[in-house]
Here is the input.
Amino acid sequence: MDDEFDRPSLSGQPMTGPSPVVHFLYQPGTGGLDRVAILLANGMAERGVPTELWLTKATGAVADLIAPNVKVRMVPTPEIGGRGLQLFLQIPAVARMIREHRPRAIFSAGNQSNLSLAIARSLAGQAGTKIIQKITNPILRPGSGTRPSRFRKWRFGFTARLGDMTLTLSQADAEHYSRIYPLAADKFQAVPNPYVSRAMLASGEQRAVRNPAQPPRLLAVGRIAPQKDYRTLISALARIADRPWSMTILGDGPLLEEVKAWVAQSDLADRVAFKGFVGEATPYFAESDILVLSSQWEGFPAVPIEAMASGCAVVATDCSTGLSELLRAIGQAPVPVQSPEALAMALANEMDVPQPIAPMRASAAVYSIANSVDQHLKLLEQANRTS
Here is the structure.
């Protein structure tokens, strides 16, 4: 294959470099980062950038999103262990692929593949291939022990120094990590992820502020796992059971049956509907009034941004620095984590005084697919200018 290409840069000047641009993704699964990686690859390919997806597994819930003009390459991987072990064991194979295809840059989809890609590039001896990492979940999480936290903090700092650029999902996160890792401070860059589609923005444009006299339709979206803290959500709903409302929950996970049991024990079974995993949530945003996020921690979650773009109000815990910053900017205070009382009060306030739609949509528009692709390409040019 021809390893060199010339194309216009965003500034209009020709840009020459090794092709292609690679997006590395373990699997097109159910996670938000999987969808983001595919949307970025699609967007770059649409701009005429030779773009590839390197996958460990080809099948998954969002595999059908991959555009025909994105080339897919499978990374040879031993069929043993889980994701972490497989990412480690495939390092020599990734190094061989880097030597063979000489990509101009490899974008890591998220935390787990950042280190393995940086090591593979070092083994390949291809300094011209830029490794652009992304931090998608907090490095330090509630409930982690002292030793695991110290190790994670060291590992992420070491990983950042090995790569060429580390993307964060908000400016607040970029500044935070620059302070924690002064030796890699210049490598942290904030970038908006591609969350918002044209259909979401069109849906929001047609919405009117909810009439407080109408029973609100609540929505929760996310994997039913400890991180999302559905126990706090159900406890909060029980505290406002005297109000008229209905709730739809989209998602699957290890705590599904346990959460269903909590709902039944709280006498809410006739008001809470479980729909399982849904690949396209846009219609649910359009039909709902309030998106509720009860997580203990998040990186920068897509779901509340997508809801806001669709004209659906958001009540969220203070689980993400970037999201909390965004909510405060539109006059919506985040709720303390693991506080059913505070979450119930915030829901009751939103039911009584609905948020205006225009500020929500304006904030969410920054995370449109088109703008996100633009920003990622600008940072790619910046990485290529840095030796």
The mean pLDDT is 92. The CA atoms of residues 181 and 305 lie 28 Å apart. DSSP finds 15 helices and 14 strands in the chain.
